[in-house]
Amino acid sequence: MREALVVMAKAPRVGEVKTRLIGSLTAEETTQLHIAFLSDTFVLMEEVMEERDEVSLVLCYMPEGEEEAFEEVEREGSMMFAQRGDDLGERLRNCFADLFTMRFESVVVIGADSPTLPGELIYDAFDSLENENDVILGPATDGGYYLIGMRRLHPRLFEAVPWGTSEVMAVTEARAGEAGVNLIVMPEWYDVDTPAELEKLREDLRQTRESAPFTRRFLNELAKKQSD
């Protein structure tokens, strides 16, 4: 079975990424943090690819024409194509549609805001997609979701969802019920978009030495700079 593991990401442009952290960090620092998050996400994706022979890695990016902006991101062996659509729902729907047109049989999409996401959750997501009626969601602590996967496009899941709010997961679950799909809900995890979530990430990194090396290095260098 041909599988696609996709990260949806904005180009790392100063002042345009991780904007809710600007104030706690400078715009330049949030951009470097975004690059670190993306690099750690690709470390995770590459680990999944090593375990699953049929997985291809995909960067679905925005805006179109910004391929060179990702040159600082540590990534190898991934396809790249631009997101299409006026809102996140349209962009997600088109991402799935494009990959199914490329004859991928199973597609899992993650974001770039969870650098400590356990790889086991992604393995479980692919393993749980047994038929075309299955949809898998990984709920985020902020009311959104960090992962969505399916084996056939179910466009209803992306319609009239209040993107960027705490209602995203609940409304998507309702859309899944309307579409009659078999919804599989994974364990909760957290995105890092706010100062409180960044502090949680710092604490998690203090508890373990095994995850998010790029983010860990950046935050250590930032702490040293702030203490000088």
Can you describe what's shown?
It contains six helices and seven strands, in the order E-H-E-E-H-E-H-E-E-H-E-H-H. The N and C termini lie far apart (53 Å). Helix 1 runs antiparallel to helix 6. The chain has 228 residues and is of the alpha/beta class. It has a seven-stranded mixed beta sheet, sandwiched between helices. The protein has helices spanning 27-51, 88-101, 119-128, 168-179, 195-207, 213-227, and strands at 3-10, 55-62, 78-82, 106-110, 134-139, 145-150, 182-185. The protein has a single domain (3-227), classed as Alpha-Beta Complex (Spore Coat Polysaccharide Biosynthesis Protein SpsA, Chain A), CATH 3.90.550.
* CATH class wording: Alpha Beta
Distance between the termini: 53 Å
Spans of at least 5 consecutive residues whose pLDDT stays below 50 are none
Strand fraction equals: 15-25%
Widest sheet: strand ordering: 3-2-1-4-6-5-7
In CATH terms, what is the architecture?
Answer: Alpha-Beta Complex
**Backbone structural class:** alpha/beta
Percent of residues in helices comes to 25-40%
Query: Which fold does the CATH topology refer to?
Result: Spore Coat Polysaccharide Biosynthesis Protein SpsA, Chain A
Please tally the β strands and state the result. Answer: 7
Q: In sequence order, what are the helices and strands, one letter per element?
A: EHEEHEHEEHEHH
Shape type: globular
Please tell me how large the radius of gyration is: 17 Å
* Relevant CATH superfamily: Spore Coat Polysaccharide Biosynthesis Protein SpsA, Chain A
Average pLDDT across residues? 95
Biggest sheet statistics? 7 strands, mixed
Number of helices: 6
